[in-house]
Amino acid sequence: MRGAALAVVLVVGACGGPSPSTSHTPSPTSSAGTSPLSSPTSGPASLVHCTTAVPAGDSLVIGTVAGDATIVVRDIQDPAHARNLCTFDSSVLAPQFVSGTAVAYETAENQIIKANLSGGPTTILATYSSGFDSGQYAFSPDGQSLTYLDSNAWHLVSSAGNRVLTTLPAAPGRGVSPDEDDSFLSFSPDGQYIAYFQTFHTGGTGATAPDQVRRASDGALVYSTSGMTMAVWASLPSRLYFRAATGPVLRWDPSAGVTPMDSIHWIRPHQSPDGRWITYSLRTSTGVHGVGFYGVQADSQIASTAAGRSGARFLSNDLVWYIGERACSTCFGGQPTPTGVTYIYSIAGASEITSRLSAVHDVWPRVTAPAV
To answer: Is 317 within the bounds of a domain?
Structure first.
């Protein structure tokens, strides 16, 4: 996933600090070896602490609330009466949900840790070496498989053990384009495939190509290409959407192959849990971004917000969270900077309100029915 929220390990910043949807750069220390999900290693004391039981089936967010930098698990089943259930220690990196009852996070020792929200011992799922892109990870929808990056090696961890799917060319030192560069690692919503689409480990072809889809059951390569960016899964059966520097959005389908779709130059796309919508940022003529909404069934952009919005993430099938931003001529690459105000947009109501959530790292459930 993208740090999302995400999902991106790319930390590009506007002057006001990193976007809430970005991930981290691993620490200089590292540990050797890995532990498959089938035989996890007992881990250190949990870094997540719950003061109340997590209600089964409720909608949950990992994020922060305005005025407090503490990362929390927040129950948003009733948005008008949202409440914090758990807190993470400040040393936690890249937290995300494994399921509605368990979370994962990374430590300064480059370990991927699983912790149950009900308490008890943690497990070390994997360790990784330091390096660019290293440590980016994602779970299958059922929480039974893990995929992650260890420097140039792409791993899949399942009941069959921990295996290297491929080793990619090293990422060369170069500048970064915040609106074009991306690193997307994610299982498909139906759990059948894994995609790794990125713009840094380039130069390879076939099994070492920068953009790949592999079968989750055995890791076999089913599609590869190059020159693509800003990928996202949507719909069930799962289809992967992505774009090049110019031209239309492309859709990869396991049966139909690649099909050109509507022309949208989207940035950091994210899908709704039911797979019917994709939200993303768009660069506007004023230099700041706006947030757009793509209807998967209609194959078209349905609506977009006013300029000065970015970093969109779905909280539910209807509600989308994003940050406010303003122009900044002195920031890195002239990138906009956050205003400190965040918003929630209702697609059904075409309306926007301010939000108490100052950052969103992940949302549960990630996949819901009905879907398309």
So the answer is: no
